[in-house]
Amino acid sequence: MIPQPRSSMLELPEYVPGESNLKGIVDPIKLSSNES
Question: pTM score, two decimals?
Fold first, then answer.
């Protein structure tokens, strides 16, 4: 049996490395994976 993604996962936008867009935010701050 081949695993199938949930239909809700197919609705997510494609990941684009380095791209940051937030509605209403002009210059968002990006954190590294090891920063919190």
Answer: 0.33
